[in-house]
Amino acid sequence: MDEAQEILLNSLGSLGVSLPPGVSSVQDLNPGTLVSICAQSLHLIDDSLSFPTSLPDIMAERFKICAEIASAIKGVGYRGDISFNQFLYPSEEDSYKLVRFLVERLSEASEGGKNANKKIDGVIRSENNKLEVVLKDTVEKDDNPRLHLNQLIVTTGLNDLKLETEVVETTCPVDKEFSVNGPIDACLAPRDKAEKGAVGISGEGSLESSKEARCRRLEDVKELIEESGNLKGASYGVRESPANSYTVFEQNLAFLQEHSSKIQNQIKDLHSEGKMLLEELSSRVLESQCLQYEYNVLEAVVGMATDHEKPIDLYVEDLNKRIEAGRNDLVELGSQWDALNKPLEDKKRSLEESLHAQTPEVLDKLKKLKEVELQTQEIISEIQKREEEHSRLSAELKDQPKVASRKSYIQRISEITKNSRKQDADIERILQETRELQIESNSIQDRLHRTYAVVDETIFRDAKKDSVSRQAYRLLTSLHQSFEQISEKILATDRARREIAEHEAKLAAMASRSLDINRLQTDLDAIRRENEFLEQRLHNREM
Predict the structure, then answer these.
(1) For 2-131, which CATH class?
(2) Of the chain's two ends, which shows fewer C-beta atoms within 10 Å, N or C?
(3) Which pTM value belongs to this model?
(4) Where would one find the signal peptide in this protein (predicted)?
């Protein structure tokens, strides 16, 4: 029984009910912990139900809160008898039934949440399918999708590389030593220059390694381009022999696709490394700017503190003037922004209207794409919340004490099921025997009634003529009445024994509840004192 109680309490904890420390079985539940568990469980079952998780000091408030919780539990489907005394003076049996009911209801509520999540997943899946259909329509407009996609991938990678080098060129000049090796070195030189400047902050060793890595990548790119050029020349030569042109073209196409994928991977690596270096450089620049600003502020403060010729009020007045000037500048900039933003908004609106008039399908697809992006953001935030909750529950699971293994639980459940089946078989056998005895008793009673009716009629007919028969008839009626009285007494005795057994079971249950008479007397005295205090206040108000 202790293991079953521990399983119930662990189930409550896993369903989101916080248990106080030191509670490992139902016997450890006192009125305060029982009220806290019930209040939390009712709030999880129904969000509209909200009760305090602790008992107040005033006895009247305690009775009121316990009565409200009892009625709420009755409202969510509890079939047993429940009132305030189950909370203020709990017994082990009543508390076990109540906790088991709460676990069942919380499990049903969690199943309902899972069904809602399945519906959300279905909506997300349908929106993803719609997006895939839109993208497929745009791709299928080309005659040769495979070559088109390969060309698009390579072109996109080169454009990204070009865009990245242009961004780097705006921040730092190109070193002359990289402009000798051809157009590829010229494109990659700004990236190496930026990386050189960023890595130089951390040390010369990392600079040398990064330069060597760049040189290796440049050599690989050169080799790939030379091989592709040679392959291109070879393909032109093969065109003169039409017999092998198709096979050679397929081989050349596979080779070009392989090399284009390699070039794309190297471009992506260079692009990502350049991004990392730019981010690190920008962060270092911002950090240096913040430090410089703090240094200037501290220098100004020190100058103000050491300047004895001017009072502090002049500096405060100067700062107030600067703040007011800054506010005026912000207001002016806001007005200028409004003046510039309004024609831009009108132009944007007119362009959207013209685009909608020319190609309404593109605008509809854009709206759908925006809706999908908004739903994606909501889903990502929901996933983040679920991940946080998962990490929290994982930490709580690690902190919880280790319980018995799943195999032991399965073994216990199988034993309980086996015993239950055995008890069901015994009950069925007893009911069958009782039914057979009842049928036999009814048949015997019917036979006795028929026999008595025949004998009574025979003796009564002879009793009119003979005095002996009359005496026999009196004895027969007296015997019949005596046996009826005996039968009634046996039934009454059996009924009394059953009532005695029921009363004994009730007495045993009352004895197991371990009611503390001193505690009851203390609560009664507190209620009397509160009543007297309330009566005194009422009397003072009337006077």
Answers:
(1) mainly alpha
(2) C
(3) 0.35
(4) none
